[in-house]
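Why show two proteins at once? Because comparison is the fastest way to build intuition. When a single record is shown, students tend to memorize it. When two are placed side by side, the eye starts asking what differs. So, the first record is below.
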Amino acid sequence: MNGDRNMEKRKRFVRACVVFLLAVLVAFPSDMAAIQAKAAGSTGKSKILIAYFGRFGNTNFGKNVDATSSASIVLNSGKKQGTTEYLARQIQKQTGGDLFRIQTKKKYPADFDKLVGKNHEELDQNYLPALKTKVKKMKQYDIIFIGYPIWATDAPQAVKSFLKAYNLEGKTVIPFCTHEGSGSSGTYKQIRKLCSGADTLDGFSVNAEKVKTKSTQEKLKSWLNRVDVKSRSAKAVPITITIGNRKLNGVCYNTALGKQIMKKFPLKVTMDEFGGREYYGDVAKKDRPTKKSKGKLGFVNGDITYCFENDTMAIFYNQSDQPDLSMRVNCIGRVTSDLSVFDKLDDSVEIVFDYKK
């Protein structure tokens, strides 16, 4: 008898659980869909796009081409990839985001000498090749990484075709490139000019032959840490930075910390030059934010930061490749105007941050 009663209790309990789970599924279908999507490995709609161009995927290479006969190809888990594509995939691993290969309608020649001739022809004629692929719903992306190899100390014309095809105003553009010893060759400035109205950061460059080394991976991780895509993916609020009779443009990120800072606008801070890389100054006690965050030991040129360790704000304008910070800083915004103005300022200046009228 006791066994029958216990069995009946268990049956009633199981039936109650089933009813409860069905009620949850009916009441919260969108939540369950999100859980299922996550379980399937979906990241949903991303605000980050990682677009890249390279020879591999845009060239009629023969079936026998290998990573040893072409400096632009590497093996990754047994699969052939272009060096710029490999770098793009490493960035995706660390930031999330959607990968997009820039492809031209006409393939480039596999013969290196013919490729060089074709590239010079495009440069001399300022020819922009037609593209085969297009990004759907570009508006959804706030941050756009743009990757490319250096061709004849320049960005390939296909990259310029891509950038000119979209309105990137208000977005953050972050270049990265592979090269064979030339470095970025001033291409970041080219990208900045092509992306009118966007906030273009200084990028990351690596010798194509070293793209898979441990040293490169460590440098890439450090650079991405300084870039801090989480903060930059927040809505950017246009602001002005007034220094005497100079008025610069900038943005303040609509993060929890950024909101606290903007509540104090117009915010006046006396800043002193330090080390040829930054202007920093104490924030008045009444203007200091209360909700603290950890921050990072790094920055990107143009960053406006707040340091909770000494309650200072700073504008970094140089040396992002050698940050050498002893205190953690939180990125709250960016100066989007030409940073060369900071080379001409006095050692101590009064800076006013305010909403752009």
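Second record. Ask yourself what differs from the first in the token line.
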Amino acid sequence: MTNAEHLQMRESVGVVDLTAFNEFDFEGPGATAFLNYMCVNQVEVPVGRSVYTPLLTPHGGFRGDLTIQRLGEEHYRVITGAFDGGRDHYWFNKHLPTDGSVTFTDRSQGICTIGVWGPNAAKTLAKIATDDTTAPYDLSQGGFPYGAVREVLINGVPCTMYRISYVGENGWEIYTRMEHGLTLWDAVFAAGHEFEIIPVGIGVYAVTGRIEKGYRLMGSELESEYNPVEAGLARPKVKSADFIGKAAYLAARAEAPAAVMCTLSMDSQQCADGYDRFPTGGNEPILTLAGDRIVDAKGRVSRVTTAGAGVSLGKYLLLAYLPPEHAVVGNKLQVMYMNECYPVTVEVAGSTPLFDPTDTRMKG
């Protein structure tokens, strides 16, 4: 089922229910400075733009990762994952200024979200997205570039559209008030009928679509014992503003990484009894061909962080941190699953996606 949903999204268009997302609004004259202190990446982007950013612990490991939309000069909206809301809410609230310069409002219970992605996503939404004059909204890459946030009407329903993708396809996250959710859903499906639009489950969103792009997930690839350099998420420059974990992050950038996040493929999934097995990303150890554990310079064992079908690639994929001497494209290793070893190959060392490495499908 997941594979069929994956292929339909890759070939036409699919819709994912993302209402479990958490949305936090930060408003006030101190909002920009506060969020810059909390986040690694620069949040002071133009109104109508967004930023992806990690949050760090004081020691430079991952505390979270999320996207931030700038909705006004003093208004930002944080979008964080279904399982991350409680943790992130606590972290923001813990550091919130006490001088009244920032107002923190949790909007999660009042907002519903869907994601619409695929080659026909723009054609689907072009039928129903308008501006406040009811003129068709320009959904082209020129008029609505990647990372942009826009207020639109969809069949008359006020919505926020955000051009972003966690599955490697062109499309949008669309937010509206909870009471409008069913109307929005029905409007999108009616518009996409000619393209055989289908609902797509979290197996595609969180696993197959994501793993083909090598996208990192908090709690899997992103943990407090690893840093953005090792995860392949370091940007070319570091902002001048101070932020939590900055000193440790600068130190990590100044030294060679002890581990590199890699994408591996299984050369064979056949077990000793003659049928295929499917590791689930449950900390399966990565071993050398001699069967030895792989341990990096900081004493961390290499293990599978995510596993799943690369449906569009015809490969079963694994994500894992490897020491630099093993993080070499073409390197042959093993993964242990259910007490048997299976041959694997390093496909990518770093953050370049295995599927559509130039991101043409999303941004071209």
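One difference worth noting in the second protein: The chain has two domains: 2-202, 257-350.
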